[in-house]
Every structure is written in C-alpha cells, then in structure tokens.
Design a protein that fits this description.
This protein has 468 residues and is α/β, with parallel strands linked by helices. It is 45% helix and 15% strand. It binds one RNA strand of 74 nucleotides through helix 1, strand 9, helix 7, strand 12 and helix 10.
Length: 468
Amino acid sequence: MALAVYNTLTHEKEPFTTIEPGKVRMYVCGPTVYDEAHVGHAMSAIVFDFVRRYLEYKGYQVRHVMNFTDVDDKIIARAAQIGEDPAEIAHRYAGQYKDQLARLNVLQPTVFPRVSQTIPEIVRMVAGLVESDHAYITASGDVYFRVRTDPDYGKLSRRKLEEAVTGTRVASREEKLEEGDFALWKAAKPGEPSWDSPWGNGRPGWHIECSAMSWHYLGEQIDIHGGGNDLVFPHHENEIAQTECFTGKPFARYWMHNGMLQLKGEKMSKSLGNLVTIDEFLAAHDADVFRLIVAGSQYRKPLAFNEDVVVNGERALERLRTALRPPTGPVTTGPAVEALAEQVRQSHVAFEAAMDDDFNTAGALAALFDLVRAINTARDAGVGDPPFAAAQASFRSLIDVLGLRLVVPQAAGQSIAPFVELLLTVRLELRKAKQWALADKIRDELKALGVIVEDTPQGSSWRMAGLS
RNA sequence: GGCGACGUCGCCAAGUGGCAAGGCAGGGGUCUGCAAAACCCCCAUCGCCGGUUCGAAUCCGGCCGUCGCCUCCA
C-alpha cells in the first residue's frame, strides 16, 4: 500500500516520499495566542494529528513542529486594551492551548517553538534576504521583502504578481516600494516589545517566524507543511518566497491545508464572533466526540458544525464503545471465530486503504464500524476470550490511529457505584418476584439520573450515559 | 471584480469512468416480563442543462447555489 497525499502546490494527489527515508519533517502553523482557542483551531490540530499518527503507524519517525505566534499586532492590541503585558497574555493563552490539545488527545509536537524565542534565527534570515537583495530597508527601519525578486511568487495560491500589485497605489504612510511587498521586520514603536537587530530595534513581521522556525528546527527543506486553507495566501505564499529565496532550494514537498469549520454557514472565526471555544465544547462533551466529527469528513472540505453534528458524534462514539464490551461466551473455535478473524483482516485492509488515500478518515471510520458489527456479532454468537480479546486489541490499534480513547464515562468519582449496585440488587429481587412496575420504576428513575441499566441473560449491567 | 473549492438519501458523509461505503434518524423482525443494547432485513441514481464515451455521481462546457482567500485568521 502506498500513501498518497494531496498537495496544494500541484493540486494533485502525489505518492508520498520523504527527504530522508523513514523520517518525516512536518511543520504545522499554530495559533496566534491572544485569545481563547476555538473548535476551528482544534479541527486543524486534530487533522494534523491524524496525519502524524498514521505516519507513525506506517513506521515513519515524525519530527513535528508546531509554533506559537506570541509576538504580533493583535497580541499587542489586546495587551493595550486590557492593560496587561503582551508576553503575559501570550504565555497564558499558549499554556491554555497546550492543555486543551492534551485534553483533545493530540500528540504533543516534537518542538513547540515561539517567536519570542526564535529571534536570532529570524534576524539571520532577514539579514540573509537583505544581503541577497530580496529585501530592502526603509528610512524608518522597517524591512520589506521585495516580491518582484521572486519569479515563482504566487505559485501556491495561483495568483499572478500583477494582480497583487497593479491598480493599487502604495499607501503614502507606508514605505514599501510595491503593494505586494510585505514586512519582514517592523521598526519598534514606543511601548511595544522589541529586539535589537542590524536595522535597529524592532520585531518580526508575521510570515518570517514560520520560515525561521521551520529552518531552525527542521532544516532548509521539509516534507510536510500544514495549516488551515485560510493561510494559503498570503501567509504560506510568503513563507515559500522567503525560505526559497533564502536557501535557494524548494521548501516543502507537500503543502497540506484543512478546510474551515463552518458555524451557521460561515467560517468560525474570532473576527466574525461566531465561535465555540474548545473549553466550552469539552465542558459538555467527550473529546472523542469532536475527533469523530472531524474524522467523519474529508479534511480538505469545509466541515459543518452544529447541534445535529454533535449529536451524531455522540451516537457514533456510543456505538464504537459497544465493541469494547466484554465477551459473554466461551466459544474459541468454529465458524464464528473464523468469521471474526476474517473481518478483522478485512477491516485492517480497508482502514489502511482509506488512510493511504490522502488520509480518508471517513472511509477509515466506515471500516471501523464494520469491525464493530463483526465484534458484536461474535459476542452474540458466544465467541469468548482468546480470540475475542484479540479482535478487540486489533480494534484498539486502529482506534488509536484516530486518537480515539473510547473511555466509558465514569460517575463522579466511583462514589455512586455502591448505591447503584444496591439498587440493582433490590431490583433483582423485585424482578424475581415479578414486581415489574417497581423494577421498571427503578430503571427509569436511574436513567433520569444518567445511569443506564440494561438487562441481559447474564444479569443487569449499568453505565453512565455519555456526557451531555 | 480576481483566484480557489464545493453541491451525493431527512441529517452528517465516503466514492472521481463499470451496476451508489459508513454513521444518525426512520420502517420491519430476532431476543426480552417490558425496555434498552446487540444482531438481521428495508430505506438515494448523485444541483440543473448539454456534450464525450459501449458505459459518468465520477471527464468536458454552460447555468444555478454555497463557501474560502484577495486585510488579521486553523
């Protein structure tokens, strides 16, 4: 099986090969930390977590870098607004985001660099670009990238340079030579964070940080560069321009972009104000629910996010969990056992075929549901433990690739367990005495309290209802 | 206006040339004291119009609709 990856640069699915055999260098654009992260950020993080987990499943060693933009206009603006130090704000939200990613079961990136800690590399890169005449310094100490010096400019977003340049007069206040030029370094303004540089005090422009961090932590050329598709232009276009003009080599082999999460038909974004924060979501739902929502759709397409979708996610999670329920019979040989083993094989093949096709998680999920059915059928047929556990272990190994934990929700502490058990003991007596009305009342009342009771030939079982 | 993407069952959503995956919901069964869960069965010709082809949801053209980018954005 060969992995194929859709490359934004070529608009085609391409066979996946790496610069270094067996190793993947992956850079994913992280957030600007000036406010609460929302589920749109989570979607992007999870998409690339799927990518990473599957690459590791395939045996690659992945070096994964995800940045925090902690020096930025918006952070400074926010700081001024609430009277707090910009660095404090950035530090706080970065910490929060890391914590949220952990709760979402996103694998920790190999490196989590921040702009404020990458200044020397940024300065070196800007200096190199100035030296090679790809950049120029203005009277006030800003440094701009001269877009015209890059013949390939526009190749990622398929824009012609003229479109970005013609017809727009250079704003008088700005000192850049042409409209398409963009800032590599901004001269310091009073009260703003700044660092020393050959061009005077200042701070990095928006795009240079990613080029510098990628260069510093992954080298001149990387395998995968990822981010939301709203970053294609200008951010990634400018990154390519800077890096390639600086190194003289092609930058990333594969550019991967996830689609936007849509809330009420619009992109969820801070500026539109239509957002659900990660904390809000996780307060009401299991992280697996969100992962299932993301996995249920092709990552490049826009993803609808609404109450129905969330409910679907809850139900899908509940269904996946049924496969982990224990076996009830002793059968270890025979057709039912063989059928189970066969389905396990088929599911693995189907799962990998789907993931190999540009990380088709929705297809992979379908393979998983087929396996769930096979496991449940085997349980009903009385298949017991050595083979049954093997099938469940196999199921687990695939679930892991999607980062699903499938933990059964626990009651607040384990404190209610003895009381529920007691009620069920009493209820068993009632059932023996055919006191159906009372027995049913107990079951109904428990359900109202979030405890689901199910009667089986082996006795009654109980579990907590899913969160929310 | 320019660039790009998308439009598949009530909802979510795979499939990119050969008789339309999967989940949820819905209908009918098995099991059960009942219920739930599980299991079995049923449930779409793919926005519209043309074209290419033996054959198209899948390729081409037009139209309609939705979304993203072009300013900060995962």
